[in-house]
């Protein structure tokens, strides 16, 4: 049977489906009304327009349909779910409310609900522990939660036994790498990285193999400080034909710039990308990469010229205007010394 | 500058297209033309409305 048709039928049997562009027409005002900030956002509403459930991201078809079916089975509104939880606290309502608050980008309310679910649930729940970590980690970037709180959440995931925790370990290692980098503590991710690498050793799962490659790259870069290996792993991870793709060349070059490695090669890649890129926004984006690399290599004068070219390609871009001013300031400082 | 296109996992895009291309405006199903239309249909069928908010980024 056609799986897509089966999926479509399931959606139509369970609901009235409405697709809205959040930047056009009534989609724009409704996105604002419902506080939609991530895309795609899915909202399940009753006939009165009240929210029954919401989530961000597609996931896979099975989990998508499970979420929709969950709303059909329990069509109570968020307010009704909360009233039910307050009258009779239970782990199921608490976790669902945590999911909804999380999709509403309210990490404090989401965390309170997930923690309540964790207390009410007498059995160990790896998925809930992972949700608590993700809520804490998400709150790092908005400075809602401290590094200590996040580390405690990561340690809780690390403490879970069992093969079904492998994906959680991979996600924790990846997030802690990002957070450690942002906090100027690259070593922070070490225990999570090592645990995730151990858990994924010998994996045959395609997604896990890909994730493991990323973790090995992270380890080479931030734990072992083995830059040569890191660059080789990055090169190995590039898709076929990447040397002919301006997008891939740009992203490899940008990765080099971000990590301050392989900059001479990065400059060559970015120059190739500028030749291959389509005029307009794509070319401007690559010129910005090349400008950053030139500046990093001590050629601030060319960085200024490149940003002027980027603005010719994408004149309305405020970020590129700021970049031009930044490089002009740096050039002025260089000329004064 | 990092390219946003490169960052979007291919698997998510594929799943998204499945929904975007597959569920809106199917010939054999009554599709709502607006939000109010969707709510009215849900009231009539005693069902729920599933809204997908997307952008063209």
User: Helix segment count of chain B?
Assistant: 3
Q: Report the portion of residues of chain A in β strands.
A: 5-15%
Rg of chain A to the nearest angstrom?
24 Å
Helix content percent band of chain A: 55-70%
Number of strands of chain B: 1
Overview of the structural elements:
Chain A: This is Thioredoxin domain-containing protein. Chain A: It comes from Candidatus Polarisedimenticola svalbardensis. Chain A: It holds the Pfam family TPR_8. The complex is a heterodimer of chains A (337) and B (57). In chain A, α5 packs antiparallel against α6 and α7 (126-141) packs parallel to α9. The mean pLDDT of chain A is 93. Chain A is built from 17 helices and three strands. Among the domains of chain A are: 124-237; 245-337, Tetratricopeptide repeat domain (Serine Threonine Protein Phosphatase 5, Tetratricopeptide repeat, Alpha Horseshoe), CATH 1.25.40.10. Chain A has helices at 3-14, 25-33, 61-73, 78-87, 91-103, 107-120, 126-141, 147-158, 166-182, 190-200, 206-223, 227-237, 246-259, 263-276, 281-296, 300-313, 318-336, and strands spanning 15-21, 41-45, 51-56. By secondary structure, chain B is α+β, with helices and mostly antiparallel strands. Chain B has one domain (4-45). The chains are: A mainly alpha (337), B alpha+beta (57). The interface between A and B is large, with 54 and 39 residues. β1 (15-21) of chain A pairs parallel with β1 (48-54) of chain B, so a sheet runs across the interface.
């Amino acid at each position: 049977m056609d799986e897509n048709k089966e999926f479509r039928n399931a959606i139509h049997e369970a609901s009235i489906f409405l697709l809205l562009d959040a930047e056009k027409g009534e989609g724009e005002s409704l996105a604002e009304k419902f506080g939609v900030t991530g895309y795609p956002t899915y909202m399940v509403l009753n006939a009165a327009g009240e929210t029954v459930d919401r989530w961000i991201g597609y996931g896979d078809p099975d989990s998508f349909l499970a979420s929709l079916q969950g709303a059909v089975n329990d069509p109570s509104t968020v307010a009704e779910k909360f009233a039910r939880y307050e009258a009779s606290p239970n782990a199921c309502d608490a976790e669902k409310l945590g999911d909804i608050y999380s999709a509403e980008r309210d990490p404090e309310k989401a965390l309170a609900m997930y923690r309540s679910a964790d207390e009410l649930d007498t059995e160990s729940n790896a998925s809930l522990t992972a949700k608590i970590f993700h809520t804490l980690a998400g709150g790092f970037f908005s400075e809602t939660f401290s590094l200590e709180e996040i580390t405690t959440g990561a340690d809780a995931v690390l403490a879970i036994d069992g093969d079904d925790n492998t994906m959680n370990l991979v996600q924790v290692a990846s997030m802690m790498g990002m957070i450690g980098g942002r906090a100027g503590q690259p070593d922070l991710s070490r225990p999570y990285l090592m645990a995730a690498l151990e858990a994924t050793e010998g994996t045959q799962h395609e997604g896990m193999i890909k994730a493991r490659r990323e973790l090995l790259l992270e380890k080479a870069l931030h734990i072992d400080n083995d830059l040569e290996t890191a660059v080789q792993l990055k090169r190995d991870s590039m898709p076929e034909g990447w040397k002919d793709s301006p997008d891939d060349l740009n992203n490899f070059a940008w990765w080099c710039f971000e990590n301050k490695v392989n900059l001479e090669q990065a400059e060559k890649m970015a120059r190739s990308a500028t030749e291959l890129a389509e005029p307009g926004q794509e070319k401007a984006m690559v010129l910005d990469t090349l400008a950053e690399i030139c500046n990093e290599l001590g050629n601030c004068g060319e960085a200024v010229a490149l940003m002027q070219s980027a603005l010719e390609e994408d004149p309305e871009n405020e970020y590129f205007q700021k970049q031009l001013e930044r490089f002009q300031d740096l050039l002025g400082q260089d000329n004064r010394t | 500058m990092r390219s946003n296109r490169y960052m979007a996992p291919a698997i998510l895009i594929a799943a998204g297209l499945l929904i975007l291309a597959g569920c809106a405006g199917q010939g054999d199903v009554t599709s709502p033309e607006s939000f109010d239309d969707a709510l009215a249909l849900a009231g009539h069928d005693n069902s729920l409305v599933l809204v997908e908010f997307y952008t063209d980024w």
